[in-house]
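Protocol step 4 of 6: record predicted structures for both targets in the notebook before any analysis. Target 1:
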Amino acid sequence: MTNHYNDFRNADVILNMGSNVAENHPVSFKWIQAAKDKGGILIHVDPRFTRTSAKADIFARLRSGTDIAFLGGRRKFNIDNKIYDEFYVKKYTNGY
């Protein structure tokens, strides 16, 4: 992770994949909970149902090895619905 805990606290949506952050990283989960208290949404993607799954607003159970397909589908959804930062894509990626 390369972001600061403040990013968690101020997030509208947090996508957590393959990590049981509630049990393994309780300090960072405190900031995720702060975002949830302000109306943020926690999405937990994992093959296992854990304490993080129980706290999540959305739990997406995947079969092991299907995480890349899930992320590809998520990216396609964003592109199809134009819910991405067009300026960022044009300036900082090869997307255009």
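Target 2:
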Amino acid sequence: MTIDTQLFQTINDVAEATPWLHGIVMAYANYGIVVFAALMLAGWWSARRQANPTRMAAVWVPLGMLAALGVTQPISAIVGEPRPHTTVQNILVLAHRSQDPSFPSDHAVMAGAVAAGLFLVSRRLGGFAMVAAVVMAFARVYIAAHYPQDVVAGLLVGAAVSLLGFWLVRRLLVWLVELTPLRPVLTTAPRATVPESAEQMAG
């Protein structure tokens, strides 16, 4: 038995010993994405009047999340790790018995990407999102949907893709906000010239 499987078994034992938590954890594990959607909306709302690069980061957060999920899909297909309920005997399974690959966890990828992106917008929002992401990761293991390594990898990959992606596309985001008809939807800040914005983003 690997360390990862042992840790999974320990968390599963905790789940068996806490039936009063099942409903709460299952609800968050399955529908907690609503929390992250609300955090992204809060990030956009707080950044809409601010200067670059803060408002660029707010625009990027949902895009970074989608990029992270796109990056991990081929990884999941290549690794092809089975779900815990197919490989570990005599465990409590609260999750839907999916046959999709287990590594990495899509929920953790999404949570990690949103948390990292929000750190670029607001440390307070980013900190709250990181706590929410860690709780999401634990919840996915608690309901036996994933192994611990699946959620840890998901958080790290999601955060890495979000941060790296913002660094790569930040100048494109300046163009998107400043020069396209989408500007009134994305920001209420005074218009900046693209050269000035690009210079700020480069700095």
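Step 5 preliminary note on target 2. Confidence is low (pLDDT under 50) at residues 193-203. The chain is about 75% helix and 0% strand.
Proceed to step 6 after PI sign-off.
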